[in-house]
Amino acid sequence: MSGGEFDLIRNYFRDATAQREDVVLGIGDDCALINVPAGKHLAVSMDTLVSGRHFIAEVDPVSLGHKALAVNLSDLAAMGAEPAWVTLSMTLPDADEVWQQWLASFMQGFSALAACHQVQLIGGDTTRGELTITVQAHGFLDRGEGLRRNAARDGDQIYVSGTLGDAGLALQMQQGRQIKVNDSAYLKHRLDQPTPRLALGRDLLKYATAAIDVSDGLVADLRHICTSSGVSAVVHVEKLPLSDAVSHYLNESGDWALPLAAGDDYELVFTVPLERQAAFEAVITQWDLRCTWIGSIEISEPSSQVKVVLPDGKIIDEVSGYDHFNA
Ligand code: ADP
Ligand code: MG
Hints:
The chain is of the alpha+beta class. The protein contains ten helices and 13 strands. It folds into two domains: 5-142, CATH 3.30.1330.10; 149-316, Phosphoribosyl-aminoimidazole Synthetase, Chain A, domain 2 (Alpha-Beta Complex). It has helices at 3-13, 61-79, 97-116, 166-174, 184-192, 198-204, 218-229, 244-253, 257-261, 274-284; strands spanning 23-25, 33-34, 40-50, 82-92, 120-128, 132-142, 157-161, 211-213, 232-236, 268-272, 291-298, 306-309, 315-316. Strands 8-10-7-11-9-12-13 form a seven-stranded mixed sheet. Strands 3-6-4-5 form a four-stranded mixed sheet. 41% of the residues are buried. Mean pLDDT is 94; it is low at 319-327. The structure holds adenosine-5'-diphosphate (ADP) and magnesium ion (MG). Adenosine-5'-diphosphate binds next to helix 1, strand 4 and strand 5. Adenosine-5'-diphosphate (ADP) binds next to helix 1, strand 4 and strand 5.
């Protein structure tokens, strides 16, 4: 982009977020300069959203601004990191008035979520092309800390936060499937404006071994933990935490694939060793965010499987996708 780029930067990015004291130099120079606290790791994560692939072109830009930041903060949450700074690469089809209006709305959603977590936008890039948004998030972890995917062990107990399948059901409805639900506004909110589970992630540093956020679906994401850790998982479908809307839908449809395989909920799935389970169960009774036991980690051959126990006791292993659950 040419001259318009500088106007965009000045008007929409430079003062989009609050100033943090650890930022020596923010937007406006060749680089941002930041102070990383002594004794901390810098945790860094990046995610890209492409129009037509990760969102529909007509999506509400306020929600998209929220989501672009939320999915990145969710990765920090899944590591147990505390967010601090973000950079933003924005590829826009045009810099005309229509797109400026769009950008103002996008940044409204982005900035509101940034303010909730004291996150500062410290730089980025602005170019012209097919609408694409890349956010890089930076956060802190104490040295040696971090909820890694490779840390699950035989006998660990598996928990998940919040509820599963909400975003997936909203997506099906958005794609035109006629589904009767009693709270479509709730479902849409879960799809459009996911909540990064940052406080949970930090609390989990004391209790959990491995953690991951549910972006691609419970089974798919849990399998990442299994693969990295060289273990398998057993998940009990009847234990999966469901919202009233999804629960109602499942009673009608029997579509267990939804909470198992649908993505975009951005809840955390994590493992707690047996010896810490009692303390964990005690502490979660005081938390606002529900955490639910859904199964356990075991050693089996071949490893890296996620075995799903259906309500009738039938076990499905080698879960490869949707169709298996629609039986
Ligand atoms: P350069 O030519 O050195 O890459 P730019 O003209 O791309 O610089 O950017 C000027 C300043 O504006 C830089 O500090 C850059 O980090 C910031 N910036 C550009 N685009 C964005 C954006 N989308 N969000 C936040 N900061 C941005
Ligand atoms: Mg640049």
